[in-house]
Design a protein that fits this description.
This protein has a single domain, classed as Alpha-Beta Barrel (TIM Barrel). The chain is globular and about 50 Å long. Strand 1, helix 1 and strand 2 form a beta-alpha-beta unit. With 281 residues, the chain is of the alpha/beta class. The strands form two sheets. Strands 3-2-1-11-10-9-7-5-4 form a nine-stranded parallel β-sheet. 47% of the residues lie in helices and 14% in strands.
Length: 281
């Protein structure tokens, strides 16, 4: 496992790929997420060798990228996005980036459970196929937060077991994005982690929960840096991942009020790095 930076998750917004690598270096991270749209737009003019140079010079890995279009939107939005997605995936792979992720909402106000299953399979199977064609893995994130789940008329999948069933329907290269927050709020345990294989875990997010809030009343957008409060048993979480052999990126996604109070990117990077080093020295 290695510490990777998701700049947007801690409230910084690098101007380009090179700035993202510089931010990772400044914060002593070992990897950084990339913007596949930017890479695809630049690679035709600059080439993969040139775009790889900042990563290779700094010893930074291109950790992963999100699905860069609105696959949940209208048919027209989905068709437009899926049309250019192969070029974006090829561009990411040119930077040795082979992990792509998205999140799955835990309910719908419009679609029943069965209708929602069909919707996700129809929209995401082509995504997984395009990724598989380039040797990429696809991680889908389950959302365990009960206060968020309660907002929907029709419940949907929100546990690792349920998400794996959906992953199996989507494609052989599809597995989980496991987030310590959603693992905790879904009331999962280390045993749930140990039931997984390394191949089933594509990506990992880490964070902590505010102290003094009942688990079912936690709000999805109010989190803490990993190990900040000790509410989420992050040591056990990381130990479980290590036991099953996960060796990919681990990314802080705190949505932290503490970070929002910091006024410089450097301060946010250093504080996040300090928290990450407590769990992955």
């Amino acid at each position: 496992m290695y510490r990777a930076l998701s700049p947007g998750a801690i409230g910084i917004h690098p101007a380009n790929l090179e700035a993202a690598v510089e931010a990772a270096v400044e914060g002593s991270f070992q990897g950084v997420e990339i913007n596949a749209v930017e890479v695809a737009e630049r690679i035709g003019n600059e080439g993969g060798d040139k775009l790889r140079q900042p990563f290779e010079a700094a010893g930074i890995q291109a950790a992963g990228f999100g699905v860069p279009f609105n696959w949940r939107g209208t048919d027209e939005e989905w068709k437009s996005g899926i049309k250019v997605f192969p070029a974006q995936v090829k561009a990411a792979v040119a930077l040795n980036c082979t992990r792509c992720t998205t999140y799955i909402l835990p309910g719908s106000n419009d679609r029943t459970l069965e209708e929602n299953l069909q919707f996700h399979v129809a929209r995401l199977t082509p995504v997984a196929e395009i990724l598989a064609n380039e040797g990429c893995r696809f991680g889908i994130e389950y959302i365990g937060t009960k206060s968020l789940r309660n907002q929907f008329k029709h419940p949907f999948l929100y546990t690792s077991k349920g998400m794996l069933e959906l992953a199996d329907m989507i494609g052989h290269n599809t597995g989980l994005l496991v987030d310590s927050w959603h693992w905790y709020t879904a009331r999962e345990t280390v045993e749930d982690l140990l039931s997984l294989t390394a191949e089933q875990i594509v990506y990992v997010h880490v964070n902590d929960a505010p102290a003094g809030v009942p688990r079912d009343e936690l709000l999805d957008g109010e989190r803490e840096l990993p190990s900040a409060t000790g509410v989420i048993p992050i040591t056990s979480f990381i130990s479980g991942l290590r036991t099953v052999g996960y060796n990919g990126p681990v990314v802080a996604e705190p949505f932290s009020a503490e970070l929002k109070l910091l006024t410089t990117n450097r301060a946010k990077l250093i504080r996040t790095s300090q928290a990450m080093r407590t769990i992955l020295p």
